Amino acid sequence: MSISEIIILLLIYSGLLVFFLVPSTKMEQVKVYKRQESLSSVFKDTLVKSVFQKKAIFALALFGFALYGIQSGFVGEEWHYNAHSGYPSISYKLPALLTMGGAVIYTAILFLVIGYVSTIKSIRNAKYQA
What we know:
By secondary structure, the chain is mainly alpha-helical. It contains 4 helices and 2 strands. A two-stranded parallel ribbon has the order 1-2. The protein is elongated.
């Protein structure tokens, strides 16, 4: 798989995750914050809000499908090589685990960035109490 194919897959995966994890505008309300409320508490509230919505189920399904696709791709490639090469058997377990670990890390970073951007937007649009 060439680098351009990987970039296209990552763009599609990222776009779908952003679509499924960003709360819709009609669900978002202008929240009233106290002046002392810290960025971390608003960030946690935003992350919880983005996880506990109906669309997040589809993001979880997409994540599971991506991990299953990675695993089945490596298993198929390993079977094909071992069945048709005539060389001693090989194992693709380590590359499969490393690729799935990279997908988990990429998804976690993307989720945190989505939460951070939503937090900044929420703070910017918030009304404050004295």
